[in-house]
Structure formats: structure tokens, C-alpha cells
Amino acid sequence: EATLDLAERRRIRSAIRELQRQELERDEEALASKRFRPERGSHRQDDKENWPRSRCLEEEQQMALAALSRQLETITDVEELTKLLRAAGEYEERKLIRAAIRKLRAEEIEGEALSPCLQGG
Questions:
Q1: Mean pLDDT computed over 97-106
Q2: Which of 23, 52, 86, 118 lies 20 to 30 angstroms, CA to CA, from 108?
């Protein structure tokens, strides 16, 4: 009877693994279909009344992002960048801040890799 229970448990576990694998495949397919979907707004006619306003807002956002980028170049503390990241609301702002954090960490790692050579020499 014990061997029957073990065999049944194995079948159940393999069935569960198979279901999980199928679910992962479905999720990946759904993500892929979303990722490569064409933009929704590309086929519709432009809203002529709101176009200049949205264009102006877009330009303001680009200017703000450029200013943020210049500000991030002067910050050399990861903790300060992390605080900015938590406070940032816009996706593009967060993207710039994460890139600055990655750059700083890479520089720190590079500095640590070079320091033993400098100390030894």
C-alpha cells in the first residue's frame, strides 16, 4: 500500500509540474503578444484641438528630464539617488535614476577592483 501511495504522489507532483509549466508558457505568450502589439494611437486620426497642448507638455517633460539628467550627474551618493527614486512618480524619471544608480555602483565596483592593484603597487 505504501508503494501505491508513493506512486500516486509522484503522479500528482508530475501533473502539478506539468500544469505549472503550461501556465508559465501561457503567461509568456501573453507577455510576448502585449510586448509586440502595435501602438493603439497610430491608426486613429490626430485630435487637432489637443495636439498643440500635448506637444507642449511633451516638450516640457523632455526639458524636465534633461534637467534631471544633469542633476543626477552631480550626485555621487547611492542613498541620495535611492531617495530620489522613491520620490519619483514618472516612469521616465525612475528610469533615469535607476540608470544613474547602476552607473555609480559600476564605478564603485571598478574602484574596488582597482584599489588592491594601487595598494599593492
A1: 91
A2: 86
